[in-house]
Amino acid sequence: MAKTIDLELTRAEVEVIELEARLRVVPMNDTQLSDALKTALVAKKERLLKLRTLHAAAGRARITDKDNGDVNPLHAQRRPPLKRTVPQRPPTKSSK
């Protein structure tokens, strides 16, 4: 769930940035396009705000789960790095 929210939040932020950029380059005499972009920008910002609050709530829920000691094995914490070993050749028998 958290990764889905992260992706949605990132996508919504990108959409807002793109709309703001598009609004900066609207021709002066195209008021219809300008008004439509402003309306869309307001709607996108509201959605972004809602997603940010959901994201913050999900983050708080994960913190309280950790405090309770409940660990979901599917969402385990970071693993320690694997120890790398150099392969050793087996000792050769000397033929005398």
What does this structure look like?
The protein has 96 residues and is mainly α. The protein has one domain. It contains 2 helices and no strands. Helix 1 packs antiparallel against helix 2 (31-68). The longest helix is centred in the middle third of the chain and has 38 residues, at 31-68. It is elongated and about 95 Å long. The N and C termini lie far apart (68 Å). The mean pLDDT is 79.
Average pLDDT, to the nearest integer? 79
Reported for the largest beta sheet, the result is: none
Q: Roughly how much helix do the residues carry, as a percent range?
A: 55-70%
The tally of beta strands, per DSSP, is 0
Structural category is mainly alpha
Over the alpha carbons, how many angstroms does the gyration radius reach? 27 Å
Number of helices: 2
Instruction: Name the shape in a single word.
Output: elongated
Number of domains: 1
Compute the separation of the termini in Å: 68 Å
Low-confidence stretches: none
What is the string of helix and strand elements?
Answer: HH
Features:
64% helix; 2 helices
Q: How is this fold's topology laid out?
A:
Elements (H helix, E strand, L loop, with lengths): L1 H23 L6 H38 L28
Care to give the gist of this entry?
The protein is elongated, with a radius of gyration of 27 Å.
